[in-house]
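We modelled the chain as a single entity of 249 amino acids. Its sequence is:
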Amino acid sequence: MTLNIAICDDTQTDRAEVNRLLNSYAFNRDYDFHIEEFENGRELLTNYTEQHQFQLLLIDIEMPGESGITIADTIRRTIDHDVIIVFVSNYPKYMQDSFKVHPYHFIQKPVTANEITKLMDDILYDIEYNKSLISIIDGYENEYTLNIDDIYYIETVDAKNKELCFYLHDDQIHAKGILTTWTNLLLEHAFHICSRTVLVNLTHIHYINDMEIVLDNGARITVSRKNKKALLDNYRNKIVAIKRGGLRQ
């Protein structure tokens, strides 16, 4: 699994030590961590340009200028609501204040190898248990880590060459693969086949009109007659649970 991680701390030695501990963990557990360092919150915000650019942020709370809590709150509200945030601080008195941005964890400095091991074991277990993140590889061998909920639909664009396209809200990623594989993988996440070449995320359906599905980003998908009844039944049976957040319980 690949994780993109940002370390934000105004102390260079502290950033380097956390970086070292994370890389040591990744090496021992055979994970792939891409780690970037930022010396203050403003630098992090300037370089954090899109949702899911990072899966994990380790942020020092007490920094010059804006505090780590303020920076985390801005990220939650304007850039990436779902990113995992871990606060790191010399002062446990900040723990209570940090709760307002719903951090995953709070670590007191100096950070130890045991703490990083426990933290990453928990994070990676939760990701695997919830199955909320997936990795796909495009035609240029670039790996992308996506939140399943952000996928609107998947389409076969070239069956012979096993080429798929993953459509997001306002972006798309081409990757190698077979639609049947993703149909089986995403079945429990409220995806449904609407034609021989398209797998749609039921949670993003705005409405269904005749033989066409309209998604909440305005995209329109044709549904085959063969699949329409099963799709409608699946949509009606699950939509209440989806809206209540109970589908994966």
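As a brief sanity check on the tokenised model: Confidence is low (pLDDT under 50) at residues 242-249. The longest helix spans residues 225-243.
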